[in-house]
Amino acid sequence: MTQRIAFQGEPGAYSHQACREARPDMQALPCKTFEDAIEAVRKGDADLAMLPVENSTYGRVADIHHLLPDSGLHIIDEAFVRVHINLLAVPGTRLEQVRTATSHTVLLGQCRAFLRENGIEGRTGADTAGSARMIAALGEPENAALASELAGEIYGLDVVARHIEDHDRNTTRFLVMAREPDLKRRGSAGMMTSFVFRVRNIPAALYKAMGGFATNGVNMTKLESYMINGHFTATQFYAEIEGHPDDRNVQLALEELDYFTSHVGLLGVYPADPRRR
Question: Does pTM surpass 0.85?
Fold first, then answer.
């Protein structure tokens, strides 16, 4: 039986591209929301979920860090996906025929120079793949979409202009989630550990909690805070470090962290994507 990997969005979305690149042997399952993708794995309708967490140009993806701790799932892998933006139109369309380009507002913002140089008006659509589907249904050469080549393939559109993004390193990082953790050492680029914690209500608690990572030579690659349940006084931190919980220096750092925190929750142990370097 073919395994399935859930993602948020329509077929042809960049999350769909991430599924195809990272798990080409699995069947991609489109879901309406991030919560739906998580629930599909929890219920057994899918084996994995592919969730975007941050973009190199636009920062972290809203809501994801709130969903991860309570999802009941575990991070087992990460995937870095290069976001190439393409101008898609009905077959046979020439660039000079295009007058409008529809897409998610984020993609429109990443192609300002190209659109301006070619006199194309940007129009906001619900999302990238949905915009491509709409343009295919319209069937008008003057109206195009900004989306992935995969979206063009799915909806029968031609690539009128390829890789038109303003920034040539635009990359989205995804986390692969599963029902069960995988603590094995694997991959060729080292291991990563993700966790959440809440500091105790004592002076300089965060500073003291972080001290153990510095003194034990553990590199912390991410530390972000966010409110819990809308309360300004209830703050949870999301952290990522290089290393495995079985590494002695990581063990010592986590022991010191535990002393200054009221809660620590392990979210996942997974191999670093080689493109992280």
Answer: yes
